[in-house]
Amino acid sequence: MVVANNKEYSWLKTYTNSQFSIGKLKSPSVLTVKEYFPPNTFKHYLKLFVPYFIADEILVHKKNPDVLLNECIQKLKRTKAKDLAFKLDLRFDVEFGFSKILGKYSYLPDGIHLCKDATYLCLNRLIQEIGTNDICYFVGDTDHGKYDINDEGYESWFETGEIHNILKYYELLPYYFPSYMWNANKDWCICSPEGIDDYLIIGCNQFVHDKIISIETLDAISLNYTDKFYSM
Q: What is the distance of C-alpha 66 from the center of its chain?
């Protein structure tokens, strides 16, 4: 992996800078697709939920109570976002997510979990499906709360590599996970909004959109460019 030319980020950076300058992405109560993607770049957009899991009771490891919940994943039941919304008596639409759950309950109800191992598998399946021979670009932008830390403090980073590098970033600390990642042909672009752990926003072409929607193990919902995908 090598450091990418910052010019490869200009198509996004110029636009997102304008959104920050007018205050749209500063401590927002509402987020829309158009605030994260320049117009006329992608024909389709998706909200890809990471796997939600539910349990009837809080789980602890029988022999070692300190073992992380991820290691008890086989005891949890995966549930689709739509089914989770039904279980919690919430409307399922493009705004569904933890923010809606917290808006109703003011806390995350016991028994609802995200599991790092399952999220990793979800990302792995995603990159298998959108796999490309193109070079891919990965950006961590301090404006989006995604940064590298060095002796001089916090800084944005720009790298290029193969698509499976997404998994490497996921294994690192959350602030290092890319703000955006896309392939050179711009068949798709994955956005990880700051402070959101339970889904990704994807801009893509028709082929990638239809492929992701058709895969049972990928929990995705279509978005329009003007849709709100987050609200408090």
A: 28
